[in-house]
Amino acid sequence: MRYPARPATTPPQLPEWDPAWSRIVEAETPDGRHSFHVLDTLSVLREAGLEPEGTILALHGNPTWSYLWRRLARATVETARSGGRVWRLIAPDQLDMGFSERLPHDSAPTPQSGEVRRIADRIDDFDAVVTTLLAEAAGTAGAGSGRTAGTDAEAAGSAVAEHPIVTIGHDWGGVLSLGWAARNTDVVSAAISLNTAVHQPEDAPIPAPLRATLAGPMLPTATVLTDGFLGVTLRLGDLSPETKDAFRAPYRSAALRHGIGGFVADIPVDEAHPSHPELQRIGADIAAFEHPALLVWGPRDPVFLERYLRDLRQRLPRADVHRFETASHLLSEDHDVAGLVLDWLSDRFPAARERPSATEPTTASAPAGSTSTAAADSSATSAAAPAPRAVTAILDARRDDESVASVDFAQNPAQQITWRHLWHVTTSIASGLLELGVRPGDRVSMLVPPGNNLTAALYACLKIGAVAVVADAGLGPRGMTRATTSADPQWIIGELPGLSLARAFDWPGRRISVKPLNRVQSTLLKVETSLTALSRTPHRVELPTPPAEADAAILFTSGSTGPAKGVRYTHSDISALAAVLTRVFDVREGTGLVAGFPPFALLGPAIGATSVTPDMSVTKPKTLTAQAIADAIIAGHSTMVFASPAAYRNVAATAADLDEDQRAACARIELVLSAGAPVPGELMDAIAEVFPNASIHSPYGMTEGLLLTDIDRAGVAEAAETGHLGVCVGRPIDGVELALAPIDETGASADDLLVGAEAQDRLGEFVVSAAHIKSGYDNLWHTTALSARDDLDGSTWHRTNDIGRIDSAGRVWLEGRLQHVVTTPRGPVGPGGLEALIDSDEAVSRSAVVGIGPAGTQALVAVIDAEGTSLSPGLAPLDLAARLRARVAEVDGSDLSAVLVAPEFPTDIRHNSKIDRSRLAAWAESVLAGGPVRGRI
């Protein structure tokens, strides 16, 4: 079949496409002059009176075209018009693709076909278009706009600084643009790539979709004679029919699809392929690229698998990474990739005339803790406090101490170890890990429940600078797989259940078991050795000393508000957290600590406390009984208990089972801490009956900052008398500064931070600063950037995503999460405050307030949980609805449009208090529209 040549043309009218972006560019390539369709925003910018201050060179892959970059084009123009840096976007359609020139072809494409346009040809094509347009810009805008012949090195460096040039590519356009950037470092300032691949490992199979397409006659059939390959690709994203049709626009007939087949045929699947040597050269060039780089990834891509991202990260070890955990191949169709790219560019290349960004303060840098006298005092105390010790300093200092360091009731019988034994075991394991090949910075996934084994593994890693990756088993197999894959550990230490899960889901990392396995188990689970074996390793004379700023742990969030995020903690962060426990709660060396709250079960050796792990399931806090906690107190001679509210509820419920000795042990407890969720007054009263002589505290925090505020039992009672709505979590603890980002009518929180009197009784998002908050999110550059802001004094602030108010006494009142704000005509409403009011009714077990309707005009709807009540799902009884409406109107002035009873409340499996309000809102909207009441929400 003869495929005739066709000239380049411009696209028809398409959704989200501005015809003013299109132009035809004639460029001289090594094999002749060709015409290319190019998306170019220059004319639109100049029409607005704007001259480019930087250029983005974008390259699509196969089988897309420059339509892929339409949202980035629009975002760059809007950013320029609003005062940000003026970025010009140039995105050519590759030759034989999109609306660029079609070449003549005599046959269907095959890997060895002489008519296939090779990787090297495509880089030359890209270079020809870019050189033509940059030279054109240099001729019209003056020096410094692009690459011109004869530019000396000094002038070139100046031009790059004044007018950065950045590449971005997707799919095979990713590797092509990276290769071009690596070969043009004199003019390229940075590079960005979406899902792509540079190297195909010899021992790994080609991804299944490509294997099927490359198989013999399937290649021309799937790619050229039909639009099968195109159709499959367009299903790898949540595209509307109109968007799919736009992507199909340049490929309506077989004569227009030869480039798609040729691109597939040019994939170097082995060393015999004609393009294999060129791809190897590109890989080597990329590894030498030292400019800033950003890798954006969709993990659900069936073609560009995790191994390709791993390879890219090894070639670009300093690259920033952002993973959209729910994204597949066409990630820019499902997520705000344009916003991420422009925020990253703004961070790397700030414009002199830009307004202060989200990472710069716009208010005076007064101590946010000045919202109360106590907070101001704590700031002064923090400034005078000595620098925290290294994480392993106390353990190393007590190497000859024969007193008890840890008791583990998860072992049967309970296992007790001394400080001397713990030091020797951790030092031996650390030495063994080094001999095995573990290096500082290597990530080690910990699939071990809290207890002595996890403590030994963790502190061995801390000693040599390996990074512990901890994902709660409560995430479930899929959630843990997603978390572990995103962290990409080089090693896994686990017990049999965890190792079996890792094998079943093919998690990355070499395997180490806790205890020795038999030969069959070791082979099946790919286990190389055990902690038991490593604990016999002779001590090395010296172990590497990790710097304070090095990562120490990646702790994953609960996943209750989206895919679980890895939170990065450095050695300095963990040391600061240990210092907070010592400073604020007087947890000193020798203190006996019963740790029923997993994050704090690991801090014992860092603070010198004797830590006791009670007999319970860490994924099911309600399994902690009063007898179990009393036995743990006795074994550790403990004076302090730390557990979650769910655990304490069961402890209070089973207190009648305590014998005389156990009651006496509970009476010796001086301090009770509860974290994970706010503790209501009635639960504090129940806890006080079990621990009659203890001071009961409920610190507020999150994975990103485990201790931020604190309130005791008396404080809860005092707050209850004030009449404020929401849940009071007390005042900022020593070392924590607190500010408020006000919420506007759209439900968004402002960049400006309010402190002191300005912040009082304003609904806003809480923003905190402390030495012990996270250093960032792992492989989530954009999430880190959006959640953090650097103040003028150099301190880092964290946006908590929690909303509420600060009262005149400096107390913090929680009213929900930022994404749960209801935007009513009267203004934004935090659901937590109204829920606390509704929950006070004797007929209500718990409630959720959601918004129904368009943003800005949402109606308030109260949804009551039917579980534990006599209420039937559907509309609430008239008398109850009237009572709740009247109460809300009287106290808050808000109007409840409806009161519904739900058959169930969807909640996070670990945190029963975290209600999935988005699902409840969808259910409520359906019911009010006449939909079914029952069924899974």
Task: Give an overview of the whole structure.
The structure is a single chain. With 937 residues, this protein is of the alpha/beta class. It folds into 5 domains: 329 residues, 3-Layer(aba) Sandwich (Rossmann fold), CATH 3.40.50.1820; 135 residues, Roll (Luciferase, domain 3); 195 residues, Rossmann fold; 85 residues, 3-Layer(aba) Sandwich (Rossmann fold); 108 residues, ANL, C-terminal domain (GMP Synthetase, Chain A, domain 3), CATH 3.30.300. It has an 8-stranded mixed β-sheet with strand order 1-2-4-3-5-6-7-8, with helices on both faces. β13, α20 and β14 form a beta-alpha-beta unit. The longest helix is centred in the first third of the chain and has 23 residues. The protein starts with 21 loop residues before the first strand and ends in a 9-residue tail after the last helix. About 5% of the residues have low confidence.
